[in-house]
Design goal:
- The complex is a heterodimer.
- By secondary structure, chain A is of the alpha/beta class.
- Chain A contains 9 helices and 14 strands.
- In chain A, helix 1 links the parallel strand 1 and strand 2.
- Chain A is elongated and about 55 Å long.
- The two termini of chain A are 30 Å apart.
- Helix content of chain B is 47%, strand content 17%.
- In chain B, the strands form 5 sheets. Chain B has a 5-stranded antiparallel beta sheet, with helices on one face. A 5-stranded mixed beta sheet of chain B has the order 11-13-14-16-15. A 3-stranded antiparallel beta sheet of chain B has the order 10-12-17.
- The two termini of chain B are 51 Å apart.
- Classes of the chains: A alpha/beta, B alpha+beta.
- Chains A and B meet through helix 1, helix 5, strand 13 and strand 14 of A and helix 7, helix 8, helix 9 and strand 11 of B.
- Strand 13 of chain A pairs parallel with strand 11 of chain B.
Chain lengths: 224, 459
């Protein structure tokens, strides 16, 4: 997936590019509104990450124009301007998400995945945490390059957790992802699958573990 | 200084002025009219005479009533002539010869008075017409003159008597409030407008035309003051915007730089440090921000807030070695609060627990019916003597210990803004327990949709 990053702070733009590149994204940098407009003409980008305070204007003003040039282009505003009215303005203008700096790379990746119009398999085909790599296209997990064989339910749980890249997954959301809406299941069935998956990850030395946030949900975290 | 009602001041001063003016005006008028040296015959003489008159088919007579006799003792030379409308007349006492002619014409003379000079008081005569038993009776009397010093007193006392002054004061009582009420209508409208002033919105100015001219300088000065305040407000707002940008950008750069480093123990530490720096920067901005923003409370579900905040902070808490749990009832617990502020308060409490919880054990968020949310850790707790002071900015219980930064102070400020309370206690099993309590919602104000009132996610 190719991203247009509109950011006038050169060091930050370079650092973000190298961080995102390591997750398989191609990043082009535009330092101003005019450069961004120029870059959008090429119609090669799948997503726009947009700063607000740019040398030639407010990034939010680009949203409508970008949408005219590229129907359906997902747009994430990433800015230091985080007052509530500013957030509302950004979302009203049509941004898909509004993030306030500083944002960790993992968080940005999770947001990119969430707003990408293309299926995750194409947008960000892989996710890596610790020694664990997950291929969303093939729906396969691997630890240090070795394929990790898991039963279907456990694989679905792992996919849902790693898709969120270390952020919390609500219990209801996880149950929905694993069983769908129709399946009437006992809640402890989910717990049983999770504890089996946890053991499997530990035995494989995946470098990640599942944390339980009792009363809320689960998250996948790297072991220090 | 105690401010008195304008109405009261006007009423008192007007009443006093009216009484004094009346007193002198009437006094002066009478002085001119009476010339000050005449005698007169008092009303009492006429009254006594009238009561002594008896009418009958044969004619008039004068009875020697006790009052008449008493009057005669007072005025030895008292005389009376009474005539009816048919010209019949009767006398009492000695009529002076020089008035005999006049007395014969009495039935055709109306009320009148002949004043005399003091040294010749016998010349004083008073004629009055009264009804007795349905007949018109003319009474002429003399020899009962008094000097007018007494009359003076009577007149003056009549002027300041309640009969004259009370209606005047009453009319003041009615007219003054009416006038003031009407002229103050503009002021009341203005006060409403002033109460609605919100500096964060576009230019505000109070209208000059609605108030009496006397008050306009005050309103104009008020408008100028608002202008100055607004200028300060705008400058501060701009400063906050700039500061936010200038603070967040380098932290973002730092964070991105750390993210590109290969995995190591020091990378994890650096991330935690930058996280703390970012938190502090946000709290500084929050502290500035809450002083410029108004409070807008809506129904908020405490359970949802607890779960949202827990979701947000879980990765960080987990990375620092804590377990995190939410203990909330299945049904919603609605309170009246600012959703965003409430989220910040709870986030700050969890962050505080993460700094002081000893990097071990469980941090729990508990929702207690009907209006309380607790954040409890399993650290060393807060000693009794520090419980008030930890809410001060950057308070440090012991030198060398990590400080409480701004988080608790902010939580306290934010709670005060939404009429809530924040307290801290140590639990029996160890660890500190912060509790925030809000105004519960009355049943009627619950939102219709179950999903409404969720705290927006805080990122």
């Amino acid at each position: 997936m190719r991203i247009l990053l509109v950011e006038d702070d050169e060091p930050l733009a370079q650092l973000m590019r190298s961080a995102l590149q390591r997750h398989g994204l191609v990043v082009d940098i535009a330092g101003s509104l005019s450069e961004a407009t120029e870059a959008l003409r090429s119609a090669v980008h799948d997503l726009l990450v947009l700063d607000r305070s740019l040398p030639d204007g407010d990034g939010v003003d680009l949203i409508a124009q970008a949408r005219r040039m590229r129907t359906g282009l997902p747009i994430i505003v990433l800015t230091a301007r985080g007052e509530l009215p500013e957030r509302i303005e950004g979302l009203d203008e049509g941004a898909d998400d509004y993030l306030v700096k500083p944002v960790a790379t993992d968080e940005l990746l999770a947001r990119i995945r969430a707003v990408a119009r293309r299926p995750a398999t194409i947008a960000l085909p892989q996710a890596t945490m610790g020694e664990l790599t997950f291929d969303f296209g093939a729906r396969e997990a691997a630890v240090a390059g070795r394929m990790l064989r898991l039963p279907r339910r456990q694989l679905l749980i792992l996919e849902t957790l790693i898709y969120r890249q270390g952020r919390t997954v609500r219990r209801e959301a996880l149950r929905e992802a694993v069983y769908g809406f129709d399946d009437a299941i006992q809640s402890n069935a989910l717990d049983a699958h999770i504890s089996k998956l946890r053991r499997a990850l530990e035995e494989a030395g995946a470098g990640v573990e599942i944390s339980v946030i009792r009363g809320v949900g689960y998250l996948l975290k790297e072991i220090d | 200084m105690k401010s008195k009602s304008l109405l009261w001041q006007l009423f008192v001063s007007l009443s006093v002025v009216q009484t004094v003016v009346l007193f002198f005006a009437f006094g002066g008028l009478l002085y001119v009219l009476l010339d000050g040296r005449n005698t007169y015959i008092p009303d009492g003489v006429i009254k006594t005479a009238k009561e002594a008159v008896r009418t009958g088919p044969s004619g008039l007579s004068i009875e020697r009533t006790p009052e008449l006799e008493a009057l005669q003792r007072q005025y030895p030379s008292l005389w009376l002539v009474v005539a009816d409308d048919r010209g019949r007349s009767v006398g009492y006492g000695t009529l002076p010869s020089y008035y005999r002619e006049l007395a014969q014409q009495l039935a055709w003379i109306g009320p009148s008075e002949i004043h005399s000079y003091e040294e010749r008081s016998a010349y004083g005569v008073r004629i009055d017409v009264k009804k007795v038993d349905g007949q018109r009776i003319h009474i002429m009397t003399g020899g009962a003159s008094r000097d007018d010093l007494g009359r003076w007193a009577a007149v003056v006392s009549g002027v300041i008597s309640p009969i004259v002054s009370i209606p005047l004061i009453l009319s003041t009582l009615v007219i003054a409030p009416l006038l003031i009420w009407r002229s103050m209508a503009g002021v009341r409208k203005l006060a409403q407008a002033a109460a609605a002033i919100d500096l964060s919105h576009q230019a505000v100015e109070l209208e000059l035309d609605t108030v009496p001219r006397e008050i306009r300088p005050l309103v104009a000065a008020f408008n100028e003051a608002i202008d100055r305040l607004r200028a300060t407000y705008i400058a501060r707002d701009q400063f906050l915007r700039d500061a936010a940008h200038e603070l967040r950008l380098p932290i973002a750069v730092l964070m991105a730089r750390i993210d590109t480093m290969p995995k190591s123990a020091s990378k994890a530490l650096l991330r935690a440090d930058v996280g703390r720096l970012a938190t502090l920067a946000e709290q500084l901005l929050d502290l500035q921000r809450i002083q410029t923003q108004g409070v807008q409370r809506t129904p908020v579900n405490l359970c949802e807030v607890a779960r949202d905040v827990a979701s947000e902070v879980a990765p960080l808490a987990s990375a620092q070695g804590y377990s995190l749990e939410v203990d909330a009832p299945g049904e919603a617990v609605w309170v009246s609060a600012e959703p965003l502020s409430l989220g910040r308060v709870v986030t700050n409490l969890v962050q505080n627990a993460m700094v002081h919880g000893g990097r071990t054990g469980t941090i729990s968020l508990r929702v207690v019916r009907p209006d309380t949310l607790q954040v409890c850790d399993q650290g060393p707790g807060v000693a009794e003597q520090h419980r008030e002071r930890i809410f001060e900015p950057f308070y440090r219980a012991q030198p060398g210990e990590p400080g409480h930064g701004l988080g608790l102070h902010l939580a306290l400020e934010l709670m005060h803004r939404q009429n809530g309370r924040i307290t801290v206690e140590n639990m029996a099993e160890g660890g500190a327990c912060f509790a925030v309590t809000f105004e519960p919602l009355s049943q009627g104000r619950l939102p219709l949709a179950k999903s409404a009132g969720l705290a927006p996610s805080m990122s």
